[in-house]
Each structure stands twice: as C-alpha cells, then as structure tokens.
Amino acid sequence: MSYCVNCGVELEASLRECPLCHTPVMNPREIGRELPPSPYPTAKGQVEVVKRKDLGILVTVVLTAAAVTCLLLNLLVFSASLWSLIVIGCCLCLFVFLFPAIFYSRMPVWLMLLADGASVAVCLFLFTFVTAEDAWFVQLGLPIVAFLTVCAEIFPLLSRFFPLSILPCALCVFTEIPAFCVALELRIRHYLKQPAHIVWSAVVLTVCVIIDIALVTILTKKRLRNEVRRRLHF
Ligand SMILES: [Zn+2]
C-alpha cells in the first residue's frame, strides 16, 4: 500500500501521480517494473447537452403524430363526429405557443402574442365543426380572443415607448382586467339576448378601481414609490 508523500492520501498501485495534489508518485521498489493498467475509465461518462433543434424535432414529431393518428382513428373507427378536429386544434395551439421557445427565440413579442391569439381563434373555429353551430364562435369565441390579444399586445406596445417596471405594469393589468370583464359580461348577455347591463363585472370593476387609485397615488408620490420599491425589492 502506498501513500502520497505530500498529502498522505492512499494511492492505487497504478497511479503515476496523486489524484488530489498531483504530486508525482515514485516508489523505488517499482522502478523498472511495468505499471498495472489504470482502474479508472479513460472515457468521460458525460451526456451531451440537448440542443433546441433536438427538442424541436421531438415536439414536432409528437404533435404531428398525435394529430394524424387521431384523424385516422376518427375517419376509420369513431366516425360519428369530427372530434379529431379538437385534438388537431389543440396540437396546433401547442405548436404555436412553443414555437418561440424552441425554434425562434428572437421572435418579437407582439408577433408571438398575435400568433398565439390567431392559433386559439383557428382552434375555436375547428371546434365549430364538432358543435354543429357557429353562433357561439362568431358572437363569443372570436370577440373574446380578439379582446384578450389586444389586451396582451398593449404591454409590448407600451414597452417600446418607456421601460416598464412592476408598478406601471400592475396599473395596466388592473385596468385591463375590469375592461375585459365588462366586455365579456356584455358579450355574454348579448349572445343570450339579455338586457345589456353589468352585474358581476361591476364588482370586479369596483375592486380594480380602488387598486388603481392606490397604484396611481403610489406612482405620483416619489417617497411612497421609493418605499414600496424598497420593501418589495424592485
Ligand atoms: Zn497527494
């Protein structure tokens, strides 16, 4: 049994230097003798890091396979309705949602949101073939998706003109939420042919107005703004 002269660690007979401190091993009794083979593997057992391209191939193949197999199953076996269009629509949405993360990370945010909104609209349109009537799509689905897309597009649009921090973003969110709720309730009432007035969205509106007033006060008073930033660490 050998030990390192420098750090004292126990040494394997085949080692030419200490694995810890790299001090050369010289055993006078071993000079001239062939060293036994090293017990440690020479190849590094590291797995290559997965690239985005590989992930993209996997996602594309899985989603395409899911869509195609469901379509075939629909056409050949369970052909009472076009239910596979729901699966195809969901696969399309997933693909569009994942596209910027996997294939094109430099995609502008506004374009990404527009593509997301369009894919959801197409998905809902495909659902109309299953529900056999499209009034809900024209009067509810499409306007709601369009409104949500516009709400989301406001953020990249605003960030073009001035840097968005958390407080103005929160103000924007708490303005958009009641606007969306009021529009949604009015749309639903219009679809159900009910008189146009707001009930539950009025509650949301009230709460959000109070939050907005608080946020505007904080934003306009420098000392308050700094105190909030200091306490919440942003
Ligand atoms: Zn050593």
What does this structure look like?
This protein has 234 residues and is mainly α. The chain has three domains: 1-36, no CATH class; 52-154; 165-234. The chain has seven helices and two strands. The protein has helices spanning 52-76, 84-102, 109-131, 135-161, 166-191, 200-220, 222-232; strands at 2-3, 10-11. Strand 1 and strand 2 (10-11) form a beta hairpin. The protein is flat, with a radius of gyration of 32 Å. Zinc ion (ZN) binds at residues 4, 6-7, 9, 18, 20-21, 23.
Indicate the topology.
Blueprint: E1 2-3, E2 10-11, H1 52-76, H2 84-102, H3 109-131, H4 135-161, H5 166-191, H6 200-220, H7 222-232
Antiparallel strand pairs: 1-2
The chain binds zinc ion (ZN).
Helix content: 55-70%
Low-confidence stretches: none
Q: What coarse outline follows from CA principal-axis ratios?
A: flat
Helices and strands, in order, run as EEHHHHHHH
Nearest-angstrom radius of gyration?
A: 32 Å
> How large is the share of residues in beta strands?
under 5%
Largest sheet: spatial strand order: 1-2
Main beta sheet strand tally, sense and closure: 2 strands, antiparallel
Q: Provide the list of bound ligands, each named once.
A: zinc ion
Give the termini separation.
60 Å
Structural class from helices and strands? mainly alpha
